[in-house]
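Ticket opened by: R.M.
Priority: normal
Category: complex prediction / small molecule

The reporter submitted a protein together with 5-O-phosphono-beta-D-ribofuranose and asked that the result be attached to this ticket for the collaborator who will pick it up next week. Submitted input follows.
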Amino acid sequence: MKKVAVIMGSDSDWPVVKEACTQLQQFGIPYEAHIMSAHRTPGSAAEFAKNARQNGFGVLICAAGMAAHLAGTFAGNSTLPVIGIPLKGGAADGLDALLATVQMPSGIPVATVALNGAKNAAVLAAQILAVSDSDLTGKLDETRSRMAAQIAEKEAKLQAELAH
Ligand code: RP5
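Result attached by the on-call engineer:
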């Protein structure tokens, strides 16, 4: 299976970003996590992105806060799918990161998840890899069935409460 790269702009991002790694582990998807910055280490970030396909990666997840140019930098240096996680924090509490991540120029997309949406970034990466992996498709289907069963249970509890 192709690997997922989970890149974050700073170690301060890790408490949120590790949710993506946990989810990838649960799906049995191989991944690497690295700290790289579009601003503080622009050379190594560009180098990593340029070599990512030949190094066995299939999806790139990039998480950053504030002036969040990390996902855009990776997208500009690779034709692999890039998923951006804008992170809350700073004076604008993440609105800056959201806009910097999502508002990409035509031709260079970043699939942007919600603020702090690390789990969804991992699920989306799994869905991309599952296009050519039936085992992974099965795991995604099981997860959806579990979610539906949980909702059915909650609905039953609610209706029971309303009936009293
Ligand atoms: C961004 O600046 C990082 O992704 C992080 O969210 C934010 C703050 O970084 P630190 O000053 O905590 O290293 O580039």
